[in-house]
UniProtKB/TrEMBL annotation:
Protein encoded by which gene: Dper\GL14340
Keywords for the protein's UniProt record, in alphabetical order: Ribonucleoprotein, Ribosomal protein
Protein name: GL14340
Pfam family, one: Ribosomal_L7Ae
Keyword flag Ribonucleoprotein: yes
Family matches, as InterPro entries: Ribosomal_eL30-like, Ribosomal_eL30-like_sf, Ribosomal_eL8/eL30/eS12/Gad45
Organism: Drosophila persimilis
Domain Ribosomal protein eL8/eL30/eS12/Gadd45: 8-94
Gene Ontology CC: ribonucleoprotein complex; ribosome
């Protein structure tokens, strides 16, 4: 497991999030998304559409280095998760902060 999956596991216990492509797009379009996490193996058309809406709403996008099965396991789900949107500002800032601190240590 990588550091992002550990951050997701801890941060999502109390946070609000949405999984799945359609629900993630709905959250992005509605302005509720604070952070978008994409699995490495989602189809390129889905990826580009998510990135397009994220750019329009100025939402940060993070790429999960594992596949959709590993992303599902990282958040405690036992099914494939290609897209994950965090709707809680505090949780999204915590994940970004933890990852930034990890990158500074390297």
């Amino acid at each position: 497991m990588n550091y992002l999956s550990a951050c997701l596991e801890v941060a999502l216990k109390d946070g609000k999030y949405v999984v799945g492509y359609k629900q993630s797009l709905k959250a992005l379009r509605g302005g509720k998304a604070k952070l978008v996490v994409l699995a490495s193996n989602i189809p390129s058309d889905m990826k580009s559409e998510m990135e397009k809406y994220a750019a329009e709403t100025k939402t940060r996008v993070m790429r999960f280095c594992g596949n959709n099965f590993e992303l599902g396991n990282a958040i405690g789900k036992y099914f494939n998760v290609g897209t994950l949107v965090i709707t809680d500002t505090k949780v999204s800032e915590q994940i970004i902060h933890l990852l930034a601190a990890d990158n500074r240590e390297k």
